[in-house]
Amino acid sequence: MLSLLSPELTEYIERHSPAPSPLLAELRARTFAELDDPQMQVGAVEGALLRMLVTLSGARRVLELGTFSGYSSLSMAEALPADGHLVTCDVDEVATSIAREFFARSPHGHKIELRMGPALDTLAALAHAGQRFDLAFVDADKTNYPAYYAAILPLLPAGGLLVADNALWSGRVVAPNDEDARAIARFNAQVHDDPRVDHVLLSVRDGVMLARKR
């Protein structure tokens, strides 16, 4: 999804935010040149926000649902310590083939573990193995956002942070009239009503929900 802001204001924000690394800039160009729906990739500002959140939270273990071509994975991996670990999940063999290439080329790629398959299955396996994460980023199929939230929260410790992209869905959450918009509206209400978290909904790009486990 694209920004709800005007092109002029979006360009201004990008000029006053950190520029992506050359490898990330190349990855963005490859994504737009070769993949369908390249707008699914997080923007440069959101990538910078993710890096900042990993740094501020002191996260050492990160979980991501929705790898796509790997821009958000690499953005977060850049902020992880050398022994940090990021597990990212996807089902798209085409998009993740580009992600694998760029992970291999990045000095931070060794921190990233790509798991293919339905995310709910991966979440169940991670829970069964007793794995825990300091930060989780959700940018996968929208209809499962409520289920992803329910499955991820037990994997976070107190103080753990959940970040969800597309929380405004181009403004359609105000009067949702399709399955994706209704699912995201349910997710937003789910987080808002959950006494286990502190949260804020931001208007960054297509909306970012932040939820910190109490």
Overall description:
The protein has 214 residues and is α/β, with parallel strands linked by helices. Helices cover 42% and strands 17% of the residues. The protein has eight helices and seven strands. A seven-stranded mixed beta sheet has the order 3-2-1-4-5-7-6, sandwiched between helices. Helix 2 packs antiparallel against helix 5 (93-105), helix 3 runs parallel beside helix 4 (71-79) and helix 6 (119-128) runs parallel beside helix 7. The longest helix has 14 residues, at 44-57. It is globular and about 40 Å long.
Average pLDDT over all residues: 96
Q: Strands of the largest sheet, in order across it?
A: 3-2-1-4-5-7-6
Find the structural class using helix and strand composition. alpha/beta
How many strands appear in the DSSP assignment?
A: 7
Rounded to the nearest angstrom, the radius of gyration is: 16 Å
β-strand percent reads: 15-25%
Question: How far apart are the termini?
Answer: 30 Å
Uncertain stretches: none
Tally of DSSP helical segments: 8
Largest sheet: 7 strands, mixed
Order of helices and strands: HHHEHEHEHEHEHEE
Helix content: 40-55%
Shape field:
globular
